Amino acid sequence: MTHKVSVYMETYGCSANQSHSEVMLGLLRDADCHIVENPEKADILVINTCIVKEPTEKKMIYRIKKIRDDFPYKKLIIAGCMPLAEYKLLRSTEPDASFLGPHDTLKIVKCIENTLKDIKVEYLEGKTESKLCSPKCRLNPYVNITEISQGCLGNCSYCIVKIAKSKLKSYPLGDITRDIEMSLKSGCREIWLTSQDCGCYGLDIDSSLTKLLKKVTEMKGDFRTRLGMSNPNHIKRVLSDLISAYRDKKLYKFLHIPVQSGSDKVLRDMKRQYVTKDFREIVTEFRREMPNVTIWTDVIVGFPGETDKDFKETIKLMKETKPDFVNVSKFGKRPFTEAEKMEQVPTVTIKERSRQISDLVDRLSLERNRIWLGKLCQVLVTEKGREKGQYKGRNMAYKPVLIETNKDLMGKLVTVRIKDARKTHLIGSIEE
Predict the structure, then answer these.
(1) Tell me, which fold does domain 373-430 have in CATH?
(2) Which phi and psi (to 5°) does residue 190 adopt?
(3) How high is the pLDDT of residue 126?
(4) Contacts of 141 (CB under 8 A, 6+ apart)
(5) Distance of CA 176 to the CA centre of its chain
């Protein structure tokens, strides 16, 4: 840079997107840019976008219009999935912005340099690039997000993300462990392994998720690792080995395994590559080996063709498996997908089904959290709470635990007794 440029950045979407923003900020810091928290003080604005759901896309369009209305004379770069997946919509909304796709993150400095010269650039090559071991400005200094791959092996009929992320590209084990090692040396205590689908890691490079986890847990250091979302068809293939890997204390007893529907007919229409029996088996086997494992899942209500019977099967599956947390999404058709052309479920029906299942999963979350009442836990603290003297950490099952104390707990592993349980978190007190 010819002079010290001030950059403001906003980030939306998944943990991989958050990691991309951390890398962009790290590269800009090394290029002697000034990172600011107020767009008014910036020379250039960067929005790292997400388009996974229809409401998210609408939020992105609204935010882009708003920031342009508020700062009409500032340069704007739109990064993330949206420039690739929704190019025409985005260009019609913001004709003067520069675009930076998710595979071109490392070009952020060049993108800013050209944009400041009044050159509207579009870095949308779509080629996968590894951002491992790149400079980072972490949003949380105790948490490192390591992206183990990009893309996936799925072909879900409703998904727009595959347009932006393309096919699976797994990164070498050595690069992943080096990225983690660098983060541990800089003070990180918690590692997030993330990708579009962690379960299929390595299938394109003669490796596997379980090999990766073994390498990570063998690394020196006192840290904890959270495995990101993994689809059932890939988890089932390595189920026994995966459960064995989860016995290591460095791996949170936490499994994010999206089922999406309790109806096998709907799953076929979604092209999900598994059946509900697979999900049940995975949950049963994990809980048999580790009863307090935390199970997260995702459910889409109102997928085209979903009948009342299909929906009741989803309700039944939730009651049977009792996940700790469920991300409930109301179906919204996405452009360029097969589901967009299917006969849609009425909006009023989708809203009612969403209300019903949300009420159920709230009760299930509270029921699962109450299991921890009175128990002693080791909690790794990585955040401050909203109130003064309040800290937030995670126990071995990745349950969020709020702690109130006048001590500084940041980055520390403390022994806590759980004294209360809410649907979203636990409340604990330090055992002296």
Answers:
(1) OB fold (Dihydrolipoamide Acetyltransferase, E2P) (2.40.50)
(2) -130, 135
(3) 62
(4) 186, 187, 188
(5) 18
Contacts of 115 (CB under 8 A, 6+ apart): 44, 75, 77, 98, 121
The domain limits of the chain are 6-123, 373-430
Q: Are 168 and 204 in contact (CB under 8 A)?
A: yes
What is the reported pLDDT for 426?
A: 98
pLDDT of residue 282 exceeding 80, the answer is yes
Give CATH for domain 6-123. 3.40.50.12160
With 80 as the cut, is the pLDDT of residue 232 above it?
yes
Q: One-letter amino acid identity for 205?
A: I
Task: Tell me the average pLDDT across 210-230.
Answer: 97
The residues, any chain, with a CB within 8 Å of residue 82's CB and separated by 6 or more, are 49, 50, 51, 57, 60, 90, 164
| Residue 175 near residue 130, CB atoms below 8 Å | yes
- Residue 3 confidence class, pLDDT cut points 50, 70, 90: low
Q: Is the confidence at residue 148, as pLDDT, over 80? A: yes
Q: What is the mean pLDDT of residues 239-255?
A: 97
pLDDT higher for 129 or 4? Answer: 4
Nearest alpha-carbon partner for 97 in 70, 64, 128, 53: 64
pTM over 0.85: yes
CB of 97 closer than 8 Å to CB of 120: yes
* CA dist list (Å): 79 to 137, 229, 257: 17, 23, 28
Average pLDDT in the chain: 95
Q: Which two tokens stand for residue 121?
A: 């650039």
